[in-house]
């Protein structure tokens, strides 16, 4: 018997080939999903790699800047440095077991497009730990937190500078112009404008030693080692404005949290005692309208990280319990030891007489940001990425 026509032909509609979508539409799609989802997709096969453009937010912008003599600080006619804008991320590597310590990497990444490398290299990060060869760490299973961008000077030795800040000038008729502030060698502040392309000592602050220079909401902020204030520098006029004086002179660290908040961490050292475990901190946030710092005892889910070439912050709300890093804390990775110090707000364990004025008082107990005994960490590396092993 002849089968019914319906059974004679079996056809299934072909799935549409999404790779044939217009290039403009693919770019819109990639700009609205997590950049590392695109990186992972590019790692599937050669076809997918050629279809998806590399995420624009991961591309590194470079600027060629003139060199200058390290003694006279006069601009050289020959040679150049490269100022790189690096996408900066926090990577948490999955622990082998629930009891294993967590490992974190703070650092920038770039594009590896060599045809000699396999596709999976697209979701790997090159890591160099002291005492070992460079290795590629696969990022497929890592938790990844974007931390904005940081600027680095390539062609410099680490000992020659302590940080660099860059701001473009968005003004009619001045498209493409920019200003660079360089915290150079023992706190000397240098400035370069794209109009002149010459390095100069920032004369208005030439008598003070700079500790931090950052950008926040389109302006430069500078703290000092020998001055009880933070100043604001307008990038267009280079005019300097002092914020309200700080209560103490000491180690000050500026920590931007995107364009949402700017934090100031003041480290207080007990008289005659350089035991890092006994250091305490004051933390303040900037009240931009009032031009003053407001003390805070609660950072919410934020973690502030004080690092060698730039301070960052991130939200810990997506980190699992017991991973060694929690919100409302400060992590120092820049002390001259291979130990990471975690700070929490709470009662001071030492003598109250050691603490400076201005610490919170709860009954007869002084409360302050102090080292936390519930967390510990070991610094595995500080450059080009900060590698941290955190334990509880």
UniProtKB/TrEMBL annotation:
<dbReference type="InterPro" id="IPR001810">
    <property type="entry name" value="F-box_dom"/>
</dbReference>
<dbReference type="Pfam" id="PF03478">
    <property type="entry name" value="Beta-prop_KIB1-4"/>
</dbReference>
<dbReference type="InterPro" id="IPR036047">
    <property type="entry name" value="F-box-like_dom_sf"/>
</dbReference>
<dbReference type="Pfam" id="PF00646">
    <property type="entry name" value="F-box"/>
</dbReference>
<protein>
    <recommendedName>
        <fullName>F-box domain-containing protein</fullName>
    </recommendedName>
</protein>
<dbReference type="InterPro" id="IPR051304">
    <property type="entry name" value="SCF_F-box_domain"/>
</dbReference>
<feature type="domain" description="F-box">
    <location>
        <begin position="21"/>
        <end position="61"/>
    </location>
</feature>
<dbReference type="InterPro" id="IPR005174">
    <property type="entry name" value="KIB1-4_b-propeller"/>
</dbReference>
<dbReference type="InterPro" id="IPR011044">
    <property type="entry name" value="Quino_amine_DH_bsu"/>
</dbReference>
């Amino acid at each position: 018997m002849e089968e019914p026509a319906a059974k004679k032909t079996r056809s299934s509609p072909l799935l549409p080939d999404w790779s044939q979508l217009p290039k403009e539409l693919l770019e819109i799609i990639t700009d609205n999903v997590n950049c590392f989802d695109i990186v992972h997709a590019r790692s599937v096969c050669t076809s997918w790699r050629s279809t998806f453009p590399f995420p624009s937010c991961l591309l590194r912008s470079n600027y060629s800047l003139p060199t200058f003599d390290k003694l006279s600080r006069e601009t050289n006619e020959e040679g150049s440095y490269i100022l790189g804008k690096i996408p900066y991320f926090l990577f948490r590597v999955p622990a082998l077991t629930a009891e294993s310590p967590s490992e974190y990497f703070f650092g920038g990444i770039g594009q590896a497009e060599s045809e000699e490398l396999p596709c999976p290299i697209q979701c790997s990060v090159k890591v160099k730990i002291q005492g070992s060869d460079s290795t590629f760490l696969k990022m497929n299973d890592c938790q990844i937190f974007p931390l904005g961008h940081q600027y680095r000077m390539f062609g410099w030795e680490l000992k020659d500078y302590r940080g660099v800040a860059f701001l473009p000038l968005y003004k009619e008729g001045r498209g493409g112009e920019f200003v660079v502030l360089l915290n150079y060698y023992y706190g000397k502040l240098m400035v370069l404008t794209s109009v002149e392309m010459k390095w100069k000592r920032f004369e208005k602050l030439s008598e003070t030693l700079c500790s931090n220079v950052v950008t926040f909401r389109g302006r430069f902020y500078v703290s000092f080692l020998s001055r009880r204030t933070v100043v604001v520098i307008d990038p267009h006029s280079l005019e300097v404005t002092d914020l309200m004086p700080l209560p103490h002179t000491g180690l000050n660290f500026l920590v931007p949290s995107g364009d949402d908040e700017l934090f100031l961490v003041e480290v207080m050292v007990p008289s005659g005692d350089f035991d890092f475990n006994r250091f305490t901190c004051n933390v303040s946030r900037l009240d931009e309208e009032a031009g003053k710092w407001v003390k805070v005892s609660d950072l919410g889910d934020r973690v502030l990280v004080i690092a060698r070439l730039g301070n960052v912050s991130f939200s810990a709300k997506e980190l699992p319990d017991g991973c060694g890093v929690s919100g409302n804390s400060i992590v120092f990775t820049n002390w001259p030891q291979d130990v990471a110090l975690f700070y929490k707000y709470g009662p001071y364990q030492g003598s109250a007489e050691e603490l400076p004025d201005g610490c919170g008082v709860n009954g007869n107990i002084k409360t302050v940001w102090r080292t936390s005994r519930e967390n510990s960490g070991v610094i595995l590396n500080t450059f080009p990425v900060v590698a941290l092993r955190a334990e509880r």
